């Protein structure tokens, strides 16, 4: 079962914007050493929107090869074109990914019926475990619980990353979906509470800078060690907040670079973290003993 701390891995780049393969390999090794339970390659935090299709698939392949079966790899393969989502998912399957994460189609704002048919078509076409990904704040479309309930019986649709931070919605999904349908948090601030409700893990931005801490926090929450899990979360709360002072992954890439794990590379239209936020991010990391 895919559960625990699943880092939404940043994609390292040079200052000129080229992919930095050495830093990517080092980050993969570091996460495994720190206890991260799974790696999500080329999701939102991995700058899927700024990579070419060839680069997208190359990063997935590189992560799978570097992980070498030590922990699961989940490939981000969502798209606003259903056929492109199929092709990315097929390519990730060939590369050896353990599962795929498919964001709701963005910009074109499909109806709930359109969302249903989109995810159903990908699941019917590609035989690999697939996790739905709902993040309406970025995509402009909300995958409603009633649509998730229509999809959750498909054998290839195994779970959902619910990134709204809405714990009432999470509770509804946990209560109404089959027991083997996996509900993950996509919101670091509320992840512990979602797991305590019966969720299975956190697809985390914060884990990029606090891999060991987020992994331990998720393990405690899964074991129903409520106070211990909440104590770690409270210590990390300034970090959770600092990772979103500007659009993700701008702050987290700056923070990972500050820790010395990669250079300050990011691609337009994303820009480096504004200088007026540097101290806030630095203070959050220092306060959580992450520098």
Automatic annotation (TrEMBL):
<comment type="subunit">
    <text>Homotetramer; dimer of dimers.</text>
</comment>
<feature type="site" description="L-lysine inhibitor binding">
    <location>
        <position position="106"/>
    </location>
</feature>
<keyword id="KW-0704">Schiff base</keyword>
<dbReference type="InterPro" id="IPR013785">
    <property type="entry name" value="Aldolase_TIM"/>
</dbReference>
<dbReference type="GO" id="GO:0005829">
    <property type="term" value="C:cytosol"/>
</dbReference>
<feature type="active site" description="Schiff-base intermediate with substrate">
    <location>
        <position position="161"/>
    </location>
</feature>
<dbReference type="GO" id="GO:0019877">
    <property type="term" value="P:diaminopimelate biosynthetic process"/>
</dbReference>
<feature type="site" description="L-lysine inhibitor binding; via carbonyl oxygen">
    <location>
        <position position="49"/>
    </location>
</feature>
<dbReference type="InterPro" id="IPR005263">
    <property type="entry name" value="DapA"/>
</dbReference>
<feature type="active site" description="Proton donor/acceptor">
    <location>
        <position position="133"/>
    </location>
</feature>
<feature type="site" description="Part of a proton relay during catalysis">
    <location>
        <position position="107"/>
    </location>
</feature>
<comment type="pathway">
    <text>Amino-acid biosynthesis; L-lysine biosynthesis via DAP pathway; (S)-tetrahydrodipicolinate from L-aspartate: step 3/4.</text>
</comment>
<feature type="binding site">
    <location>
        <position position="203"/>
    </location>
    <ligand>
        <name>pyruvate</name>
    </ligand>
</feature>
<feature type="site" description="L-lysine inhibitor binding">
    <location>
        <position position="80"/>
    </location>
</feature>
<keyword id="KW-0457">Lysine biosynthesis</keyword>
<keyword id="KW-0028">Amino-acid biosynthesis</keyword>
<protein>
    <recommendedName>
        <fullName>4-hydroxy-tetrahydrodipicolinate synthase</fullName>
        <ecNumber>4.3.3.7</ecNumber>
    </recommendedName>
</protein>
<comment type="function">
    <text>Catalyzes the condensation of (S)-aspartate-beta-semialdehyde [(S)-ASA] and pyruvate to 4-hydroxy-tetrahydrodipicolinate (HTPA).</text>
</comment>
<dbReference type="GO" id="GO:0008840">
    <property type="term" value="F:4-hydroxy-tetrahydrodipicolinate synthase activity"/>
</dbReference>
<dbReference type="GO" id="GO:0009089">
    <property type="term" value="P:lysine biosynthetic process via diaminopimelate"/>
</dbReference>
<comment type="similarity">
    <text>Belongs to the DapA family.</text>
</comment>
<keyword id="KW-0963">Cytoplasm</keyword>
<dbReference type="InterPro" id="IPR002220">
    <property type="entry name" value="DapA-like"/>
</dbReference>
<dbReference type="Pfam" id="PF00701">
    <property type="entry name" value="DHDPS"/>
</dbReference>
<keyword id="KW-0220">Diaminopimelate biosynthesis</keyword>
<keyword id="KW-0456">Lyase</keyword>
<feature type="site" description="Part of a proton relay during catalysis">
    <location>
        <position position="44"/>
    </location>
</feature>
<dbReference type="InterPro" id="IPR020624">
    <property type="entry name" value="Schiff_base-form_aldolases_CS"/>
</dbReference>
<dbReference type="InterPro" id="IPR020625">
    <property type="entry name" value="Schiff_base-form_aldolases_AS"/>
</dbReference>
<feature type="site" description="L-lysine inhibitor binding">
    <location>
        <position position="84"/>
    </location>
</feature>
<feature type="binding site">
    <location>
        <position position="45"/>
    </location>
    <ligand>
        <name>pyruvate</name>
    </ligand>
</feature>
């Amino acid at each position: 079962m895919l559960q625990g701390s699943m880092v939404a891995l940043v994609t390292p780049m040079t200052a000129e914007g080229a992919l930095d393969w050495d830093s990517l390999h080092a980050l993969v090794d570091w996460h495994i050493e720190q206890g991260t339970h799974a790696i999500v390659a080329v999701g939102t935090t991995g700058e899927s929107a700024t990579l070419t299709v060839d680069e997208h698939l190359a990063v997935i392949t590189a992560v799978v090869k570097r992980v070498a079966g030590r922990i699961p790899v989940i490939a981000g393969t969502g798209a606003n074109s259903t056929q492109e989502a199929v092709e990315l998912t097929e390519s990730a399957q060939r590369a050896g990914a353990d599962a795929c994460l498919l964001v709701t189609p963005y910009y074109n704002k499909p109806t709930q019926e359109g969302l249903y048919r989109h995810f159903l078509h990908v699941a019917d076409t590609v035989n690999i475990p697939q996790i739905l990904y709902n993040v309406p704040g970025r995509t402009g479309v909300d995958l409603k619980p009633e649509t998730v309930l229509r999809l959750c019986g498909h054998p290839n649709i195994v779970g959902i990353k619910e990134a709204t931070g809405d714990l009432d919605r999470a509770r509804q999904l946990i209560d109404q979906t089959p027991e083997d349908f996996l509900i993950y948090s996509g919101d670091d601030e509320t992840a512990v509470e979602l797991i305590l409700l019966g969720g299975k893990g956190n697809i985390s931005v914060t884990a990029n800078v606090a891999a060991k801490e987020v992994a331990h926090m998720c393990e405690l929450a899964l074991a129903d060690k409520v106070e211990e899990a909440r104590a770690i979360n409270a210590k990390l709360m300034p970090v959770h907040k600092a990772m979103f002072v500007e659009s993700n992954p701008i702050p987290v890439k700056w923070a990972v670079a500050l820790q010395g794990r990669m250079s300050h590379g990011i691609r337009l239209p994303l820009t480096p973290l504004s200088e007026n936020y540097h101290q806030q991010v630095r203070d959050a990391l220092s306060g959580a003993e992450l520098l």
